[in-house]
Amino acid sequence: MRLKDKRVFITGAGGGIGRATAQKCATEGAAVLCADLNEEAVLAAVDAIRADGGRAEAIIGDLTRAAEVEAMFAQAAEAFGGLDVIFNNAGICAADDAGPVETPLATWEQTIAANLTSVFLCCKAGIPYLERAGRGVIINNASIVALVGSAFPQIAYTAAKGGVLAMTREIAMTYARRQIRAVAICPGPTATPLVQAFMADDEAWRLRRPYMPMGRLAQPGEIANLVAFLASDEASYITGAAYPVDGGITGAYVIDDRMP
Ligand SMILES: NC(=O)c1ccc[n+]([C@@H]2O[C@H](COP(=O)([O-])OP(=O)(O)OC[C@H]3O[C@@H](n4cnc5c(N)ncnc54)[C@H](O)[C@@H]3O)[C@@H](O)[C@H]2O)c1
Asked: Of 2, 3, 1, 9, nearest to 79 (Cα)?
């Protein structure tokens, strides 16, 4: 029950990592505000938490629209009387996001809006609620591509995630004396439906597997475990940091698939 009495706002809670994190936070005692554009998915996530005896509310809206984001936070704060933690997790990865020459401008703009502007808008609308609570935590979901480059480019996604990481550090400094922590997580490839479908392609898997020291994808619950810790008071001296949760990918120099 390390999140007892915490009210946790989670974006993208209808998706793979968001839903696993919502479930984990609820089992740790939090009241969970499950935000997503996908109504059906987020209602399913909320129903599952309630069926397990947890506390959860669905918050439906588009995180790229400022007015909707403000309304979502107002609804969320109303539900359990305030907010203590914001997990900015929602994001997209477009099929035609590639190198800078190939990527359409529209894809760039859509990806920056969903992955970077959304985080800015959630901080803009959400931080005043944390200040009202007297303390709080912001956890932003970046990616290993905020730390290392890929020869299989997704330039808009990577630029957005680099922005998320830089923004996290600055918010951490801005609010450090006001008892609001800000932390980024940098997951490696995680077995959510989107990535599993992509990695089911033998060639895509063959090309990437040698760079995965543990030889497998992360499970969403393994990302959720880190978020629950960072959200808790056990992480009270952690701010401005970026946490890889990548099975060793960013720690690798040489990996050899033939090794035992
Ligand atoms: N899966 C991975 O391998 C991986 C690795 C590193 C980082 N990440 C990051 O983790 C986060 C979650 O990824 P996932 O794999 O669980 O994806 P997912 O597609 O399963 O879930 C993302 C959720 O975000 C929601 N969403 C997207 N745009 C939205 C918007 N504008 N407003 C409201 N909701 C919106 C979607 O409806 C979806 O439910 C993303 O930010 C992603 O970039 C994922």
From this structure: 9
Query: From CA 39, how far away is CA 45, in angstroms rounded?
Result: 10
Contacts of 73 (CB under 8 A, 6+ apart): 9, 83, 122, 125, 126, 129
Let me know if 157 is a catalytic residue. yes
Q: What is the CATH number of domain 7-191+220-243?
A: 3.40.50.720
What per-residue confidence (pLDDT) applies to 224? 98
**Mutual angle of helices 220-231 and 16-27, in 10-degree steps:** 50
In the chain, domain spans: 7-191+220-243
As averages over each run of 10 residues, the pLDDT of the chain (260 residues) reads 97 98 98 98 98 98 98 98 98 96 98 98 98 98 97 96 98 98 98 83 86 94 98 98 97 81
| 85-88 vs 55-60, strand pairing mode | unpaired
Q: What is the pLDDT of residue 194?
A: 73
42 CA closest ligand 1 atom index:
39
Substitution candidate for ligand 1 out of 19, 21, 37, 39 with most atoms within 8 A of CB: 37
Report the pLDDT value the prediction gives residue 193, as an integer from 0 to 100: 82
Closest C-alpha to ligand 1, atom 11:
89
Distance 12 CA to ligand 1 centre (A): 6
